[in-house]
Each structure stands twice: as C-alpha cells, then as structure tokens.
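thread: overnight batch results

M.L. [08:02]
morning all. the overnight job finished for the chain we discussed friday. pasting input first so we're all looking at the same thing
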Amino acid sequence: MGADDGPAGRAVIEELSARPQDFNLFQAISLLERAAPDAVPVGRSQGPREREAVRLHAFVSLAFEASDVREVDTDAPTGEPFSLTTPALSLGGSGGPLPMPVTEMLLERRQRRDHATADFLDIFNHRFLAFLYRSRRKHHVALNPHSPSSSTLASTLDAASALGLRSGVRAPDGSALWLRHAGLLGGAPRGMTALLALLRDRLGVQVQGTQFRGRWLALEPDASARLDMRTPLGGGAVLGKRVWDQGAGIRLTFSDLSQQRLRDLLPRGADHALAKWLVRRFIPQDLKVEMELQLAPAERRSSLLGAANPMRLGWTSWVAGPSFRGTLPPVQHTLTSDAGDAGGAPGA
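M.L. [08:03]
and the structure it wrote out:
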C-alpha cells in the first residue's frame, strides 16, 4: 500500500480477515477505514442514519487474549462495511468494570446464541473504542487516512519547528524540509550535532563538523574611536580597523566521497544548492561556513583530459606523478550568505 490517499488494497484486507492476530488494533481499524472511503470515519457519525466504516464489537472472555484483534468480517449487521471484534476496552470480561456475575451471564447467553445483552453493551463499547482510536490517530501520522503532510500532527510540528511546509518554503530544487527533521530544527539554540544529523540523513553522506573557526572582521568607520570622543580604551574604544571573532565560522567536512558525489556537492553540482540551502536554513545568523570535500581513497584514479571528460583542476582533478601514493588534498570552498560561493580553487 502506498503513501497516497487511496484506499487500502484488497490483498491487505484479505490478509487482515484471514490473519487478524498479526495486526495491531489501531492499524487494523485504520486499514478498514481506508478500504471504505465513502463511509463516515470511525467515531465521526452524528446520528443513527450515518454508518461508520467499521463497527466495533467487544469479545467477552475470562481468558487472557494474545491479540488485540479477534475477528474481522465484512458487512456488519448494523450496516457498516466492516466489523471488528476485539477484547480491548470491553465492559465485560476479566479486565472489564462490570461485576463478574454479569460476565458469566454474557458467556452463558452467548453459549445459547442469545446476543441481545452483548449487542446492547456494544453500543458503549463501540463508542469507547472509537474515541480511543480518534485520539490515537490525532497523534500518530501513520494512522491518518490521508497523506502525512495533511495530518494535525504535521501541522503542529510545522508550526513549532518552522519547517515552512504550509507557507511554501522550498529549496532551489523545489523540495521541502522533511517532517522527520522537526526535532532537529525545533530546538533552541541549534547545535552542531543536529546540523550534522540533518545533512547526513538528507544528503546521504558522512559529515563531520568543527566549531569556533575564528576570523578577522572589519569594523565599520563609525565603530573606530576618535581622540575627541573621550572613550576609555577597553571600555568602548578600539584600536585598529578589524577585530578577531573566535566564533565567526564553522567547518563541515564531507568525507569518503565518490567521484560523482564530489561533483554533486561542488558549486553548480546537483546537490550543492540543496546543501547550501539546508545549512543556511538551519543557521539563521551570518556565520562563515567552510565546506571541505574529501575524496575516498578507493576513488582515486588516473584521468585523461578531453572534451568528453571535463575536469576542474584542484576540485575534480589533481596533477601528480604515476608513483604518487599520498593523500589528495581536500576541496575547500566557503558558503557565503549571498548567492555566490567563494572557492579555494579555480572552477575551470
């Protein structure tokens, strides 16, 4: 069964009917609900004329039931497309709130095929289970009959983590942030560990990070002190035209890359714009981000220069003798805050 909004497949429903004990209770209700898209969702009927997708029955027993789903049938007697029998949350039975004599009476009447009392109690059993399922579906994306992005939980995570799914925030390639990364983006302050986890999962590469890459920052003209300002040195006055900021940047090292992955992460590569967008989306402040790309040792091979095999010296190709057995230097470039990138090698 796919992740679209379509109904559950016939093969899945047949397997559920044949082996109901292999399914979770809420999973079984969700599958039956999807298999009847024209019926009212479970727990949403407004009156006796509205038929829900599944009619829920309680299985009364004094034994310990090994499964939450006892039986699944089609065409319930009350008109619903499906019926499901479960020992969970039953009014009678060993775990029910009714006295034991009532349970014994239900078992005795069921043996005589008198189901009137059990059917009466099922009015309440169905309502209890329906509201339990509604509350579980609200907080579990997999139980939503529609796509995960349209669920209530997805809207909550989107708003709490600033994913931008509803507001239309998209990467340069048109993709959006993944819902499963809401925990990484929702924390404050955001840390290096969360950024590395985001890049590893989204890009499928090994990434290591180095923090506190300091650099010199130029001062604005109005930040320099003048003799007539009477500002004490160290209390607001600065000598020179630049200051050192130890926390001005970070370095991201992408290691063990294949030839193709290296090209994809370089400027004008297939994944470079996405990687840059993810980093800038994760880091709101203006930090200098250095990217270091390291080719895997097994990917080192000789190349022939030609029109069919374009090379970028210092990025995808290096000049070395046939006896060279050392480590190739990493490719370094800087992700700027604007549209351009500052590279450490020519892009020819």
